[in-house]
DNA sequence: AATGAATGAGGATTCATTCAT
DNA sequence: TATGAATGAATCCTCATTCAT
């Protein structure tokens, strides 16, 4: 069996196992067995548990980022771009549940190796969303209402967190998961109006009872 | 040193270490050392790694839930209740970063023991938010616009995910973390307008370009 | 509670636990708990696991030896003395099953401490039986047929082994254990005729087919 | 070194150590060292202390049973069969003293794992002997004197116990152990006459002085 | 391209034992 | 007389990793 094929099988198996168990509880034995190869071969191709994990993360984050970024047509309006990106995001996470479980489950553990790689992926997504929000602000053509970078970043984090949460929620109901389109709509429903208001300078404020 | 005190020290240390490393990578040695006690004593009081983890999770989820639930005055309007709950949530997670790291980091790993307990905590929070949303719908007094349970659940998940993400984001900037009030405001800004629209029967829809 | 009483409770508990688990698998915790005392007290009175075990063995072997030896009236004929000794043996082992389990189960493990003490007890019993056999030989008043010491020792070992085995067998059928008298009769039935024959110079010999 | 060979070395070492120390006091470290292998290898091949013990017991009981059962020619008379079986038994236990020590030492400890397996081995031997006794009864062709099953079982237990005891006795005098043939003769001497008497309906009875 | 054989290092857990009171 | 608090030392077991073939 040619090396490239074997290597892909190994990564597939590793993603599966890392998703199921987490990094430290995953065992190279289980991975090798699931990959249908002997452990020395796994080591020959991928060197160590840490590198294997790194390779999994790189492969899966690239795939997810590609899916999201290529879904947003730069010609479109900001809300359409966001909407398309979200649809692509939910479609991808639903199509690759193990990959998403691996990426999302340990995104914030600091001790594990490659926590940084995971954090970077997350940052890239957040940045992408932040750009969309900023672009929407420019579409609005109201320089006065411009949000500061800090605030945009916060909004992007909120949006991404909501998306992650919805992706996980959708994946748990394996039987009757709502289609990506619907999940994306839910999220647009909750957030877009608020974003528009913000960009128009309207803020929610607590009403003294 | 009396047992109760020691036990609390141990739980504190364990929360710290579980947060730093995750369940499986955490070692009882490290926990015992951080607690300033010997390993056998940890076992004497808390029986096993699994039970220790369980005790940590129970203690910290209860504390977080209490903080959030007791912050919302049932006499208030729905948006005020949500606002107060969020403020309490962000204040608590900021005050107990390790606890929040422990609770949030592994919320979705399935293999670990107590994944279920974690999932239940999350569900309780989601339910709490879902109630608030439903209550807001009733405040609106428009029976016709009532959202179905499924949709409310989705919205709640989105909101909770956004909150979790913001809490993590706030905690990473230890130096200049925004105050809970501000973070809560950000989240209300993004979501409340959308929720109100929904409750009024207005939905966001993609505009064909 | 006076020391003597407590000490007896401890020995009782220890015999029970040593019988159930064997020396090394028995834990001082279990013994202390069963004795209804704290571990430090056990150590105060009995010093160490090894000494505790020694005390148990001494107490129980002395009791068993006393029972057997005091049952045989030196005025009686050899077979009566043997018969009475066996009855006493089976009665005692049936009345103190834990003690017998403790004494018999590990009689031959060499590594354990006090294996020697156990071996000595066994030797004392064997010697007692050997004396009876030798006495029976003298009763027979046939100097010519005298068995050599070696052979007598072998016979005694056989008899004692048979008795031990029967005692264990009787103890396993807790519900319907045969009375000591019957067990003793079984053993006399199998062995006495053979012994008499031997003392008369008749030996069993394989018959070429 | 091929796996089969290594595995045998491990079993040999384990039998040795279990015999010396008993199950719970035996340490996997000592076994591995005696086997000339590392501990992980022992675990790789034999899974756990418990399974290793089980494997030892199975191997050694099978060997002993085979030796005894194949020694008795079914064409022979009952006493010859018994005699041959005993000779084989004593020869085997003398040739494999560790195995016999392991099998006999803990035959009656209840808590240990595999106590049942040991008990079953013993029962198989007892049953084998019981069959011989019953067969001897049939040879006698005196239906009237037939012993009931219960009594036969008791006799078999006595005989087996005597044999075990003699085997242990023979093994302790490593220097000048009597040959198996002699030990077997001793046992036949003590027991066969009694058995024959019983089968002829004659019982020993205490004589009132 | 592929693997059976092998291990050093480390982790969870238990236990006999002691001290301060 | 009696004990709550505490631990050093072992023990079972697992895992990432390598070598010889």
UniProtKB/TrEMBL annotation, chains A, B, C, D:
Q: Say which domain of life the source belongs to.
A: Bacteria
Q: Which residues form the HTH tetR-type domain?
A: 4-64
Tell me one GO molecular function of this protein.
transcription cis-regulatory region binding
DNA-binding region of this protein = 27-46
Checking InterPro entries in the record gives:
DesT_TetR_C (IPR054129), Homeodomain-like_sf (IPR009057), HTH-type_TetR-like_transc_reg (IPR050109), HTH_TetR (IPR001647)
- Give the keywords, sorted: DNA-binding, Transcription, Transcription regulation
SUPFAM superfamilies from the entry? Homeodomain-like (SSF46689)
PANTHER family (alphabetical): HTH-TYPE TRANSCRIPTIONAL REGULATOR RUTR, POSSIBLE TRANSCRIPTIONAL REGULATORY PROTEIN (PROBABLY TETR-FAMILY)
Protein name stated in the entry: TetR/AcrR family transcriptional regulator
Q: What species does this protein belong to?
A: Streptomyces morookaense (Streptoverticillium morookaense)
